[in-house]
Amino acid sequence: MSRDRFELLLRFWHFADNEETPDNDRIYKVRDLLERVVKNYQNVMEPDEYLAIDESMVPFRGRLKFKQYIPGKAHKYGVKLFKICEKNGYTHDLQVYAGKNQVDGKGLALRVVMELIRPYLNVGRTVVTDNLYTSMPLARELLKNNTHLVGTLRTNRVKLPEVLKTKLKKGQIIGKESTDGVVVAKWHDKRDVAMLSTKHGIEMIDTGKKNRNDEPILKPQIIIDYNSGKAGIDLSDQLSSYNSPIRKSIRWYHKVATEILLGTSVVNAFIVYNMKKLPNEKISITKFREMLVDELLGLDQLTNISEEPSNSNNKRKRVKHVFEESVERDHRNRKIRKRCLHCYSHKTTVLGSKSAALATKKNNAK
After folding, report:
1. What is the pLDDT of residues 185-209, one digit of tens each?
2. Dist CA 343 CA 322 (whole Å)
């Protein structure tokens, strides 16, 4: 397939019928795709005890009603995704944020957490959230469903105890536990850190490290478990960012679909693949993507590039396409990659140089 034809087909890449557009669904263009993919995510792996919930960004700077701006992200503008991941980075569910909304008087943060964690309630799991989501109402809602909450906390939340206003020196910690088992604590490290947990006290744990004065470094157990559980979201985003398949487009659903299919889905497949391998057999995400491309294009199969009629007696060869480079440049100042060396060499012996030159296509794509 030529590059121009590929770009033409990509331009008309759709996942929903525009003739059946619902009036109140802003993400209908990827709704069906999202539901199918998430169903496969959940069928492949049963989640661990700790599950982290946070947002990720799909870069997009075009015109879009629900485009978001988050200054702390690598991509500041784009479409926001809510994800639930476990410690190893595997994504079990995700939602596309389509605008602020409230349901039954519940805020956005509480609603997102409860929707994402719903299939995993009532079995004693622990949800890890940052200060955007953590609140007393969320903690109590999860406790009703036999699920714990661990997270950092914003001190301007309502219904918080007065202990958060206490001034502390470096290394000091103070906290208060409610009658229903919700602990709100404040710890001063380099700055004040407010936190909430429904499964911890305010005990300090030796991290096994020492500072410059050769003194042991102590941290609250809440912070240690928070850092460990929250790492899954960051790991998933990090793996997805390597060799990102997202390309420039004025269609937001192209970017979201590409991130779901070739970003998050590939990362999940990579995690499952490495889980079934011995430690010395595990591979990098880049190598896994290369293997996946070879599999999809059939380059890893035994193929026969000869134009002679194939039969059971013909020996098949492993083909590796290597394009010849030249010093010539095209009108866009890109190096011109000419015909495949292996295909041209083989067809020369079978068809002759003139016919081989016509039969072996050149490739000028970057």
Report:
1. 999 998 999 999 999 999 999 988 9
2. 9
List pLDDT tens digits, range 143-182: 999 999 999 999 998 888 998 999 999 989 999 999 999 9
- The helix/strand/coil state of 116 is helix
Residue reference for tokens 């199969």: 301
CA–CA separation, 237 and 187 (whole Å): 29
CB under 8 A, 24+ apart: contacts of 338-342 = 338/362, 338/363, 339/363, 342/305
Separation between Cα atoms, residue 222 and residue 228, nearest integer Å: 10
Q: How many CA atoms lie within 13 A of 259 on its CB side?
A: 27
Residue 159 CB contacts under 8 Å (≥ 6 apart), including other chains: 136, 137
Q: Which of 281, 276, 299, 283 is nearest to 242 (CA)?
A: 283
pTM for this predicted structure: 0.78
Task: Kindly tell me the burial class for residue 241, based on how many C-beta atoms sit within 10 Å of its own C-beta (0-12, 13-18, 19 or more).
Answer: middle
* Burial (0-12, 13-18, 19+ Cβ within 10 Å), 3: exposed
